[in-house]
Amino acid sequence: MSKSWQAYALHILDVSAKIARIQARGDLTQDEVLYDAALRNLQTLSEATQMLPDNLKQQFPTIPWREISGFRNILVHNYLGDIDALTVQSVIDRHLPMLIDCVQAMLAADDSSDT
Questions:
Q1: Sign (positive/negative) of CA torsion 92, 53, 111, 12?
Q2: What is the pTM of this model?
Q3: What is the pLDDT of residues 71-115, one digit of tens each?
Q4: CA 36, CA 16: separation in Å to the nearest integer?
Q5: How far is CA 17 from the centre of its chain?
Q6: For the chain, how are helix, strand and coil distributed in percent, rounded to 5?
Q7: Which ranges of 50-84 would DSSP assign to H, the alpha helix?
């Protein structure tokens, strides 16, 4: 692995903040540009979660890691557009805060183990 998992964890947090800024610009269920931006960022976030170590992910069983990975595959390979804006909004609202908390905890635990 060329990058450390921490770089991917930080990327997840950066992308999450970017998604929040996208949402602050308007309703992504009504604006296709905001929707497309959120979708693209969810894709890169999902890819980054795949680079987190399995032993760390196992410490957070409430996070649906497999579903996050599967969602990425749907976003990348579903060219017919079965994902709608309401689904994307729901994923962001219901699941992103828990993922952010989890990634922050992973990084905090790693920081405390370095000292």
A1: negative
A2: 0.88
A3: 877 777 765 566 788 888 998 999 999 999 999 999 999 887 765
A4: 15
A5: 10
A6: 75, 0, 25
A7: 54-57, 65-77
